[in-house]
Amino acid sequence: MVFRAEVIGCGIGGACAALAMAKVGGRVHVYEKSALTAEVGGWVTLGPAASTALDQIGLGEKVRAAGFPVVSVSTVDTRTGRAKSFARTEPGHRWSSIHVWRKDLLALLRERLEQEDIPCDYGTGGDPSERTGDLLVGADGARSATRRLLGNPQEPTYTGQMIRYGHCPVPVSGLPTGVLHFWSHSEGVAGYVGDDRDGSFWFSRRNADSGAASTDPDVFLAALRATQVVEVLERSEVSAPIALYELEPEGRWHNADTVLIGDAAHAVSPSAGRGATSAIEDAIVLAKALRRANSIAAALESYTEIRRPIAQATYRPGSRRQAPRVSPADLQL
């Protein structure tokens, strides 16, 4: 099926969607409100399925080289002393999780758009109400204008937690590299992962009554000072406290020619560890649905039927609902 598609947003999900749709016959145009040279901070840990999906658009190897593998997770409940660990792999997927700077991931995606001659207008968000193609893809984040255009009233809600991030150019000497460490406590969770090349990445997430709470920034570091991470804290570049929001994956995700992906449809707190991975999966599943269906409307219906249960299970990790496993076959274009 040959179609013309417009993508609102050139973040991780939007760029992946543009590349995947072009691979299955779409003529794609992307609109991004920020400038190409805009500074992008932070990092992401991609799940094994994301690496499989990135292989489909020819970027898996480059992303793996830009980041470093996270092979396992170690958790400690500091209240009880209970500890456990598990591998950061998934059945059927070749690669483990990958930790990568967000700016490096976006740079690779946007470079690939140029290589594939997919136009992206930076510095303009595009107006979803003035679409001219056969398909409009809203990848415009948790405050999505495309979602409002669809008549979906969902809005992000505060999670009850705030977070600070930090980075130091050297890893913590007392902790193994490539292992994601979590220390839970009565007020939240602290975490760390390190690499010999890329150094230390840590965070501290704490309960706060409101997203505007004036919590003493040093309070966030207390949980980390009780761990081996204390040795790099004074040498770390530290973010300001950030309020965390999430978007319940309900309401309308599509109509006959418009669809939401990524945070525009389902934004989760970093505690779920699924935000970027889910956006990449969305992009590939959408393109696959467009390749297989006999109409855009049918493709969007199929995409939503596949992806909404996964988003719902991710949004409610404490429920008995189990997230359907995303297999390599699900991500094969």
Quick structural gist:
Helix content is 28%, strand content 27%.
What is the H level of CATH, i.e. the homologous superfamily of the largest domain?
A: FAD/NAD(P)-binding domain
Which CATH architecture of the largest domain would you pick?
A: 3-Layer(bba) Sandwich
Structural class: alpha/beta
Total domains: 2
Mean pLDDT: 92
Low-confidence stretches: none
CATH class bucket of the largest domain? Alpha Beta
* Helix/strand order, N-terminal first: EHEEHHEEEEHEEHEEEEHHEEEHH
Strand content: 25-35%
Major sheet attributes: 8 strands, mixed
Which shape, going by the Cα principal axes? Answer: globular
What is the radius of gyration?
20 Å
* CATH fold call of the largest domain: FAD/NAD(P)-binding domain
User: Which percent bin holds the helix content?
Assistant: 25-40%
Roughly how many Å apart are the termini?
14 Å
**Strand tally:** 16
Helix tally?
Answer: 9
Detailed description of the structure:
The chain has 333 residues and is of the alpha/beta class. Helix content is 28%, strand content 27%. Strand 5 (72-77) and strand 6 (83-87) form a beta hairpin. The chain has helices spanning 12-23, 48-56, 60-66, 102-115, 145-149, 222-225, 230-233, 275-292, 296-315, and strands at residues 3-8, 26-32, 43-46, 68-70, 72-77, 83-87, 97-101, 120-122, 135-138, 157-168, 179-185, 188-195, 199-207, 237-238, 242-246, 258-260. Strands 5, 6, 10, 11, 12, 13, 14 and 15 form an eight-stranded mixed β-sheet that branches. It has a five-stranded parallel β-sheet with strand order 8-2-1-9-16.
